[in-house]
Amino acid sequence: MELHAGTFEPGDFAWQGLTLTSAAAEQIRQLTQREPGILGLRLGVKKSGCAGFGYVLDTVSEPQADDLLYQRDGARLYVSTQAMPFIDGTEVDYVHEGLNQVFKFHNPKAQNECGCGESFGVQAE
Q1: Hey, where are the domains in the chain?
Q2: Which residues pair with 51 in a beta bridge?
Q3: Which GO terms describe its molecular function (predicted)?
């Protein structure tokens, strides 16, 4: 029996997707209205912190070819298919914590988070 190592492309998967709370949608809309030419935000991940990965938010003036688009009430959140294995199913919220206002990510794939809440790890499936 001959075994072959296969390859896959993240775009070949059916994703559960991401959801935006109304507070997150409102904040994204406010950010895009302040800067002409900004279409929305892009959510990604990068290797970071003590738990493995961190969330990255950037403004989007031009979508990437592999971006998936999630929308709510006119707010646009772009996500690269490369990030989806780490954040699929995540709810994006915008909350007030004391004097701070921050985006929060409720990620069902996060198996552990660091003490400061800035990074997360995922378990291989």
Answers
A1: 16-122
A2: none
A3: 2 iron, 2 sulfur cluster binding
Over the stretch 32-78, which tens digit does the pLDDT of each residue have? 999 989 999 999 998 876 657 888 999 999 999 999 999 999 999 99
- Rounded to two decimals, what is the model's pTM? 0.78
* Angle value at C-alpha 122, between 116 and 123, nearest 5 degrees: 140
Give the alpha-carbon dihedral of 40, 111, 46, 49, to 10 degrees: 120
Architecture of the domain made up of 16-122: Sandwich (2.60)
In the chain, pLDDT over 70 holds for what percent of residues?
Answer: 76
CB 48 within 8 A of CB 120: no
Look-up of token digits 């994204």: 28
| Residues 53 and 124 sit within 8 Å (Cβ to Cβ) | no
According to DSSP, the β-strands at 75-80 and 52-60 are: unpaired
Q: Which of 56, 19, 49 is nearest to 120 (CA)?
A: 49
Half-sphere exposure of 117 (CA within 13 A, CB side): 6
d(CA 55, CA 75): 19
Question: 82 Cβ partners below 8 Å, 6+ apart?
Answer: 10, 44, 66
